[in-house]
Design goal:
With 333 residues, the chain is α/β, with parallel strands linked by helices. It starts with a strand and ends in an 8-residue tail after the last helix. The protein folds into two domains: 177 residues, Rossmann fold, CATH 3.40.50.720; 143 residues, Orthogonal Bundle (N-(1-d-carboxylethyl)-l-norvaline Dehydrogenase, domain 2). It is globular and about 60 Å long. The protein has an eight-stranded mixed β-sheet with strand order 3-2-1-4-5-6-7-8, with helices on both faces. Helix 2 links the parallel strand 2 and strand 3.
Length: 333
């Protein structure tokens, strides 16, 4: 059995552990708190993040990072994107030299404007053949319930991507391979920002025409930035682009859409943070994605206005009105 270490035991990390266990891997799930690890080991479920989901027998948990990483062939990273650098700096010496590191995170680091794969490379010194990403329409609760889903496993080394594909393939989870790591990461990070905007529209009481318009223009904005960075445009039309965008924008299970709905209903960012322990990546990454777009010379009105709402500089309604008031142009401009 291939040993896979998963850092950490939040909802997505636990859900992906279900995939890994079902695929026949030996899975060690690192948890920050003893009570989470104990529940996984004794009750076979993560009672805090995914209650009611029975975990495979091959999944166990520990709070000891060294124990989790020891002899691991693959290390899966699922911590919030803005905490990756600090956490990985602590874990890097524990990770075996030949282990492949897989990012399930969807964000761009504040300040450095680096994608998660770039942060992994910088902190660990690993080459591109040891760094992969998984991205697609993968809402944690549905994955954990083993509802049919597909995703993309991307690595610069196609052989590594195919190897990981085999380790992640189950009766319910179908991974496709790609070498376009950049496109998958930009698509995964940007859809969270668009999901916030769609959630605001829903929170304001607007209907399907509005949300479909925001989703479509959000895809165009995502593609502009990704292609300017060097991504394959077909990636943005696939599971890691359009697929992930549709799931995030249409499902009430999406943290980012829910966060946006609360903003649309008049809650402040601080009030939303105080009401939940779940992380909405788009609320943090909208600022870094906007900075990346400006650095690249790409027009990013959705990221710009979402950032303004999250910061409290404008309201959600002012954002929607500003979209309509923008200068008219050809759709393909």
């Amino acid at each position: 059995m291939t040993k896979v270490a998963v850092f950490s035991a939040g909802s997505w990390g636990t859900a992906f552990s279900v995939v890994l266990g079902d695929a026949g891997n030996d899975v060690v799930l690192w948890a920050r708190r003893d009570e989470v690890a104990d529940a996984i080991n004794t009750k076979r479920e993560n009672t805090e993040y995914l209650p009611g989901i029975e975990l495979p027998a091959s999944v166990r948990a520990t709070t000891d990072a060294a124990e989790a990483a020891a002899d691991a062939d693959v290390v899966v990273l699922t911590v919030p994107s803005q905490t990756l650098r600090a956490n990985l700096t602590e874990w890097a010496p524990l990770i075996p030299d030949k282990a492949v590191m897989v990012s399930l995170m969807k964000g761009v680091e504040l300040g450095s404007l680096k994608r998660m794969s770039e942060v992994i490379a910088e902190v660990t010194g690993a080459g591109p053949e040891r760094i992969a990403v998984v991205s697609g329409p993968n809402l944690a609760k549905e994955i954990a319930r083993r509802e049919p889903a597909a995703s993309v496993v991307a690595c610069a080394d196609e052989d590594v991507a195919r190897r990981l594909q085999g380790l992640f393939h189950t009766a319910a989870f179908r991974p496709y391979t790609s070498t376009d790591v950049l496109g998958c990461e930009i698509g995964g990070a940007y859809k969270n920002v668009v999901g916030l905007a769609v959630g605001m529209a829903v929170g304001l009481g607007f209907g399907d025409n509005t949300t479909a318009s925001v989703i479509t223009r959000g895809l165009a904005e995502t593609a502009r930035l990704a292609m300017a960075q060097g991504a394959n445009p077909l990636t943005l039309m696939g599971l890691a682009g359009l697929g992930d965008l549709v799931a995030t924008c249409s499902s009430p299970l999406s943290r980012n859409r829910t966060f946006g709905e609360n903003l649309g209903k008049g809650m402040t960012t601080e009030e939303i943070y105080a009401s939940t322990r779940q992380v909405a990546e788009g609320a943090k990454s909208c600022k870094s994605l906007l900075a990346l777009a400006r650095e690249t010379g790409v027009d990013a009105p959705i990221a710009e206005h979402v950032d303004a709402v999250v910061d409290g500089r404008i309201t959600a309604l002012e954002m929607m009105n500003a979209f309509i008031a923008r200068d008219t142009k050809a759709e393909t401009d």
